[in-house]
Amino acid sequence: MAPTGIPNGTAHSESSQASAxxxxxxxxxxxxxxxxxxxxxxxxxxxxxxxGEMGMGIASLLVKYSYPVITNLEGRSAKTKARAALAGVxxxxxxxxIGKADVLLSILxxxxxxxxxxxxxxxxxxxxxxxxxRRLFYMDLNAISPSSAREMDTIFSGMDVIFIDxxxxxxxxxxLADGNxxxxxxxxxxxxxxxxxxEHFASLIKITHISPDIGAASGLKMCFGSIYKGLAAVATQAxxxxxxxxxxxxxxGHLLEYFPGMTPIIENSILGEQRKAYRWIREAEEIEATFAxxxxxxxxxxxxxxxxxxxxxxKTTLEKESKxxxxxxxxxxxxxxxRKTSKRGDxxxxxxxVTIYLxxxxxxQQSRQTDDRQLIFGQRNNVRLVKSNSRCRLSDDPVEAx
Length: 402
Fold this sequence. Notes:
Mean pLDDT: 84
Number of strands: 16
CATH class of the largest domain: Alpha Beta
Radius of gyration: 25 Å
């Protein structure tokens, strides 16, 4: 039962999640005027790959303003193809898409971003070799690390391609009941586009250019996303553990009392994992790479975050059978964690801290196996005992772990 003040069984929609996450009115601003028929610049042809929720939202907004929008739907379902046709998006082959597009918006699960760049570069090289050469503005808007963005830019080196690093913060564009539109923030970095059509295009899909450096926009996305995804993973572990301890209701009640403004955000992050955890696995890995390469941090933190999303995405049925209530989501994840634990049986690792006493020296990284217990030696006062929850004593070492 949900504590008073937390709706139990509230439908989880993008609109309810957006208001609970960002607050009322965030992301809602007047749209630019329509292009007049006498405008000096014709709207560019926009290719969008792929037409998921975000891609379809941006496509719908562009089509509303008479921008030609094309996509490639090879391997996609009949339902997706019908949605694209209904939205006014033209389906073409991948080779035709690369040949026709003025701007390509890459909006994909992070793991698919680099393969698309390699496919596009291969087609562009073939077209250039046959004399069919034209400029393409390639905007990568995926949740990738700055180093991944720089690698993509390098792949296009020597081609007539302007690579733009970007990131999307917020939910997909959609028209609200009052006629206004919610639009996410799109930040870009790298070269500045000076084409006559760009000002209107940028104002329509809400682009803000923040830096001349490739990697800045994707880095901003990583830093922003780390807070929300990190919160989602920690909240999931906390709720699952509280459920197992029989104190979930009390946890939710205390959160509502001490953090009333944060509680809807926390619970919406758990609800949002259901259909997005499979994407968030790679995003957590990209965040990990960003924090290591550009922040100087160790990699362990977001490896654990990725592990949480792995459980939700691959050990539950929540992606296909999403729940509308946090307690139902927690119950499903609990079952999957128990199944995972029971399969490991007596070999389950039980990590915990122990108090140790070492001489005033530093040990090299090594391990010592004794029966079913393993001591891992690191720096002084940095020892972990795993594979045992019992007391352990190694008489032939200057170590006592109790």
